[in-house]
Design a protein that fits this description.
The protein is of the alpha/beta class. It has one domain: TIM Barrel (Alpha-Beta Barrel), CATH 3.20.20.70. Helix content is 29%, strand content 16%. It has 10 helices and 14 strands. Strands 3-14-13-12-11-10-5-4 form an 8-stranded parallel sheet. A two-stranded antiparallel ribbon has the order 1-2. A two-stranded parallel ribbon has the order 6-9.
Length: 365
């Protein structure tokens, strides 16, 4: 294609970014230390990928209750802030920009991570899936329904985590409201059967999210805040799409138009076919670009040509790449030179150490 839209500059929030090839959040499980803090190895990994227009970090739990996987770098303690400083400084030294994804998995956790406590959720409904623990995969348990006071406290946890992220040198934060995790659990009837102000109507199911978005924006400025949504996510973590699912996400997307200085909303195309799902949306970017009027990112399954096309056709402003960034730290350069992309090794995604992490070659190596 003559116009390489992925390489054009873009203004995002308060930042002027050099290209529209973004690095999506990728859980990599390398914070293998007691403090659950980012490490020098992680700093090297992110710095290698600093030519991305924007890096969005792996999900970072906002509290001890928000841990749902092994060796994830958190963002609630002083040691964790210091660990992430290693990362942000390394990325900035290489002229990159990085947002911290703020994460609470809700019911997609396990008592093994919570000192024996039960995971929390909108309602006491077991997702009937599995969680990767230090002893391997274990079946999920029935979570405990959050009280109203606890919901408010989690909002405070997110706002504090956002402040911690800025202290750690991040350029902004992304609220993880996708992929079957806590906010997504509030959005969907399959996981939210509440009869109070946090369940039932679209407005009520989105109330917790918007309270948290407002708290974070008030804490660090909305121009530093992005949001991740995956409307057609299904069949994982107990998520079922029904006739109200997409209308709820449409409500969320439309209401976010009122936050005129929000940095972006980061949508995801379906991870798997939704042809047999009667209420799902097959083309997320095309559908939601008619609803959300702000800066829009799109993710999942894109290559150079399809990424360029979705921008040129006006369905997205930038494209985030996940797995391709695992094995192509210089993805921007490869797109610019129309070079071959290295294939990733899935067996090293969630291990420890540099193998399959910092040892992928660049074109100039």
């Amino acid at each position: 294609m003559k116009v390489n839209a992925l390489l054009k500059p873009i203004k995002l929030g308060k930042y002027e970014l050099p290209n529209r090839t973004f690095m999506a959040p990728l859980t990599r499980c390398r914070a293998d230390n007691e403090a659950k803090a980012a490490t020098e190895l992680m700093a090297e990994y992110y710095a290698q990928r600093a030519s991305a227009g924007l890096i969005i970090s792996e999900g970072s739990p906002v509290s001890p209750q928000a841990i749902g996987c092994i060796n994830v770098p958190c963002i609630y303690s002083k040691k964790q802030i210091d660990g992430w400083k290693l990362v942000s400084e390394a990325v900035h030294k290489n002229n990159g920009r990085i947002f911290c994804q703020l994460w609470h998995p809700g019911r997609i956790s396990h008592p093994d991570f919570l000192d024996g406590d039960i995971p929390v959720a909108p309602s006491a409904i077991n997702p009937n899936d599995s969680v990767f623990t230090y002893e391997g995969f274990k079946e999920t348990v029935t979570p405990r329904a959050l009280t109203t006071a606890e919901i408010h406290n989690i909002t405070l946890d997110f706002a504090k985590a956002a402040e911690n992220a800025i202290k750690a040198g991040f350029d902004g934060v992304e609220i993880h409201a996708a992929n079957g995790y806590l906010f997504h659990q509030f959005f969907t009837n399959c996981s939210n059967t509440r009869a109070d102000e946090y369940g039932g109507s679209h407005e009520n199911k989105a109330r917790f999210f918007f309270e948290t978005l407002s708290a974070i924006g008030s804490a660090i400025g909305f121009e530093r805040v992005g949001v991740r949504l995956n409307p057609s996510f299904h069949s994982f973590f107990g998520i079922v799409i029904d006739r109200e699912t997409i209308p709820t996400f449409e409500y969320v997307a439309k209401r976010m138009n009122g936050y005129s200085n929000l940095a972006y909303v980061h949508f995801t195309e379906p991870y798997m076919s939704v042809d047999s799902i009667p209420y799902a949306v097959k083309e997320i970017a095309k559908h939601f670009s008619t609803i959300y009027q702000g800066t829009m990112l799109i993710n999942s399954g894109f290559r150079s040509e399809s990424g360029n096309r979705v921008i040129i056709e006006g369905y997205a402003d930038a494209v985030s790449f996940g797995k391709p960034y695992v094995s192509n730290p210089d993805l921007v350069e490869r797109i610019a030179r129309n070079a071959e992309w290295t294939l990733w090794d899935e067996s090293t995604f969630y291990t420890t150490g540099p193998e399959g992490y910092t040892d992928y070659s660049k074109l100039t190596d």
